[in-house]
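Archive maintenance. Older records in this collection stored only the sequence; we are now back-filling the structure field for every entry so that each record is complete. The fields below show one back-filled record exactly as it appears after the update. Entries are processed alphabetically, and Integrase arm-type DNA-binding domain-containing protein is next in the queue.

ARCHIVE ENTRY
Title: Integrase arm-type DNA-binding domain-containing protein
Organism field: Larsenimonas rhizosphaerae
Length field: 396
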Amino acid sequence: MPLTARQIEKTKPGDKVKTLSDGMGLELRISPSGKRGWRFRYTRPDGSKRRNMISLGSYPVITLAKARELSLDLRRLLADGVDPAEQRKVEKHEQLYPNGYTFYALAKEWHEGKTAQWKATSNRARMSWSALELHVLPYVGDRGLDDITPMEWLEVLRKLERQGKHEQKRKVHFFCRDIYRLAVVTGRAANNPLNDLSVALQRGKKRHMAHVSQDELPDLVRSIENYSGYELIGLGLKLLLMTAVRPGELRQAHWDEFNLETRIWVIPAERMKMGRPHKVPLPRQAIADLHRIKRISGHYPHLFPSRNNASKIISDMTFGMALKRMGFEGRHVPHGTRHTVATGLKEMGYPGEWIEMQLSHKLPGIQGVYTHAEHMAPEQRPAMMQAWADKLFSTG
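Back-filled structure field:
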């Protein structure tokens, strides 16, 4: 028999949940605490014959008449083959994400989230969005996430492959795959079509950064010492050769990281690729050059302020442009200095562990897990880098 408002009011809570049925799947459940809630029971329309239940709200906020109206709407959905629970999920997502499920919308959301995580000094935010704007969004930006097929993604990546841009292809593949990961875990995509594409793509040959050989090294040293451009840049190139740090670590260096008395530079963890502080021993020649740099930029927080805006640092192209002007275009780049230094130290007979620590590399295998020695005893890395500086420059 259908329920009546009188019957609902007369039914008191008991020790267990009481269920009053109105028929056609609609029922009112009364808990021992006195809470009363409407439920609609139905069989899923997917042919599985599985039963499901959906909440329609609390009584008396939802009256008997309103509950019947809501259950009628749900039965209409079922008649059209639509699962009410799934439809409710879709409506909830549309409220949460009014921009829809286009690749552009998810890419924008992903990028904003990543930008908040990346270091303020990093160029990753600008570079990642530029790559998406140039190579991805013009082709699939306005498409629904689940509408873009693996073959279409394969063609996007193969365009870069045909142009020989294997590193850019790798980055774009990573960005797009990560965007789909966000979409999948938030229920806005059914699967990630970029997961298995690597099997159909060529692997680009790993290329080392251009760097001079040991035979060419004296020519590079002479050119840097005779550099006729801005003095600060020439001194920076010398420091790269004497420390083997990454160019970005040097460009972003602060004066408060240096102890010129103990001859140690400590790069903080947040600026290091390995995420831990890195101690850099400074040979005598580097100390002399740092005093020269201090006369130029010592009144600024950074060693290498921009000439156009002293509140900012020099750009990531500055050292590279100086090397080009010296005639080393295609032969040597700033990051390649690390290759040159590592090779030279190896040929001088120094232990690989000292060299890897100087480069702030993680040791391979089990050593990288358990070995954290910094090799900063006077006769270890400090002596090694002093010998290297003596080989390159006058003792100063």
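Update note: The chain has three domains: 5-93, 103-200, 217-392. Confidence is low (pLDDT under 50) at residues 366-371.
Entry marked complete.
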